[in-house]
From TrEMBL:
<keyword id="KW-0175">Coiled coil</keyword>
<dbReference type="InterPro" id="IPR000533">
    <property type="entry name" value="Tropomyosin"/>
</dbReference>
<protein>
    <submittedName>
        <fullName>Tropomyosin-like protein</fullName>
    </submittedName>
</protein>
<dbReference type="Pfam" id="PF00261">
    <property type="entry name" value="Tropomyosin"/>
</dbReference>
<feature type="coiled-coil region">
    <location>
        <begin position="1"/>
        <end position="157"/>
    </location>
</feature>
């Protein structure tokens, strides 16, 4: 009987140890289950974060694409602005050249007006001179006719004598 008692006692000790180990394992299992739940929640959270970040990346990629397009159109606008700037410069130079030409033409016109005034005065003087010569011619022609008539009258009188 002692052997049975010893055996029973050994079995009880073994049962207590097994119960103790079972409790320990239950505690470990509970800790692992809690940890697993936390890890699953963390995975769910990280998955959600990942989805949000992927959406943000997609949004940012679209913005980058739009900004590149804007940059390209900005560069094209810059090129167009440069081209227009060059055209403006050419037009300004042409305008300055036109202004110079107008000033030169105005100066020539003024000089022509001065010369024209001078020649008009000359023409008036020549016309006055012509009028005077015509008057003298008419006077001389009249004197010639009068003298011719006197000569004829004198010649007729001489013939009558």
């Amino acid at each position: 009987m002692d052997q049975i008692k010893n055996r029973l006692q050994a079995l009880r000790i073994e049962a207590d140890e097994s119960a103790s180990k079972a409790e320990e394992y239950k505690t470990k299992l509970h800790a692992l289950e809690t940890e697993t739940t936390q890890k699953e929640q963390e995975i769910t959270s990280l998955t959600h974060k990942n989805q949000v970040l992927e959406a943000q990346v997609e949004k940012l990629e679209m913005q980058v694409k739009e900004l590149k397009e804007l940059s390209d159109s900005g560069a094209a606008a810059g090129n167009q602005a440069e081209s227009l700037q060059r055209k403006i410069q050419v037009l300004e130079e042409e305008a300055e050249e036109s202004d110079r030409t107008i000033r030169e033409l105005n100066e020539k016109l003024r000089q022509t007006d001065v010369k024209s005034g001078h020649y008009e005065r000359k023409v008036q003087a020549l016309e006055q001179s012509r009028d005077q010569w015509e008057a003298k011619y008419e006077e001389m022609a009249k004197k010639y006719n009068d003298t011719k008539q006197e000569l004829e009258t004198f010649a007729v009188e001489l013939n009558n004598i």
